[in-house]
Amino acid sequence: MVREALNSALDEEMSADPKVFVMGEEVGEYDGAYKVPKETCFLFVLLVKRFFNWIFMQITKGLLEKYGPDRVLDTPITEAGFTGIGVGAAYHGLRPVIEFMTFNFSMQAIDHIINSAAKSNYMSAGQMNVPIVFRGPNGAAAGVGAQHSQCFAAWYASCPGLKVLSPYSSEDARGLLKAAIRDPDPVVFLENELLYGQSFPVSAEVLDSSFCLPIGKAKIEREGKDVTITAYSKMVGYALQAADILSKDGISAEVINLRSIRPLDRAAINASVRKTNRLVTVEEGFPQHGVGAEICASVIEESFGYLDAPVERIAGADVPMPYAANLERLAVPQVNGTCLQLRAFCFYILMLASEPQI
Q: In 3D, which of 176, 198, 114, 188 has the Cα closest to residue 151?
């Protein structure tokens, strides 16, 4: 599962480097955020784990027992306080991993992330590195309302000095988190809690302790020739499912897992578009000033002459996330909706291509 991939990455990096430590709410004594207490009814625990597996983060499970309270630090509910402490520790050569229960709470600490961590290397003329990771669940969960459902990929990716990663699979989670911890610069690591309980096949290479993925490199999850689909985090799975459905209509879609939002792998995206001649971006964040908008701009600037159709964006609705479950489903892209938009887009292009030219 993705949570085990993240846990093993943290464990191995803490074992390899004594300067790495973890700080956040419920990361230690509670064995990871949202753990169900031992005294809770056993049948209730089974029910919740069966139907709501995603809520059990427990990314730091077992780390306190193994590394002690000096390296696994429980904090009060004060994001501004412990994030500032983490940045200060990074100034002095330590490698903090700061966990937010949700990235919505990072708004309490955004001054330390943007004005302290992201800008210090530039403002010190390269004399000061800030090797710190800010990690936690990002984006829409389920039934938690507008204040706990935002995607912050575009927010943080707009800031020079930060690196922004967003894993999809277990391989992504393990390899990218290791890369983030080893990096000399601040990294915002955006997970999706709906993926924590999802399992993915992994190779022996991925399980090796030396495994690490490069920052700034996308992965082609599925090759195709008719249209390029870019996505990140949970939307990669939706894009792959939509591509499977489209294949039954004879449409061959190439799906790119971005992995890295900043730096963005513009070379891979443009190379794919120059092959397929069409682009559709998929994300669950807001459409205005989104990651998809930046990708579209890059393709227009670098590969305009290769496009056979206008670029298309599929994104979340431009409204705060509703609480009602039926409205919540309408506010973020779904597999069927994504597939319908892609099918309409491709058929529209095929129709234009079949019209006689004057």
A: 188
Query: Phi first, then psi: what are they for 74, rounded to 5°?
Result: -75, 140
What predicted TM-score, i.e. pTM, was given to this entire model? 0.91
Q: Which two tokens stand for residue 277?
A: 């001649």
Element (H, E) at 80: helix 79-91
Query: Nearest-CA neighbor of 36 among 54, 50, 48, 24?
Result: 48
Q: Give pLDDT, residue 30.
A: 82
Please give, one letter per residue, the 3-state secondary structure of 315-326.
CCCCCCCCCCHH
- Per DSSP bridges, beta strands 72-74 and 95-99 are unpaired
Q: How far is CA 292 from the centre of its chain?
A: 14
Residues 4, 79, 99, 312: which is the catalytic one? 79
Q: What is the per-residue burial (b if ≥16 Cβ within 10 Å, else e) of 274-303? A: eebbbbbbbbbbbbeebbbbbbbebbeeeb
For the chain, give percent helix, strand, coil, nearest 5: 45, 15, 40
- 79 is known as an active-site residue: yes
Q: Which residues does 241 contact at the CB level (< 8 Å), separation at least 6?
A: 335, 339
Task: Going from the first residue of the chain to its last (358 residues), give the mean pLDDT of each consecutive group of 10, the final group possibly shorter.
Answer: 96 97 94 60 47 64 96 96 98 97 96 97 96 96 88 97 98 98 98 94 94 98 96 95 89 96 98 96 95 98 95 93 90 77 64 52
205 is catalytic: no
Encode pLDDT of 266-288 as tens digits: 999 999 999 999 999 999 999 99
Beta bridge partners of 96: 21
SS3 state at 87: helix
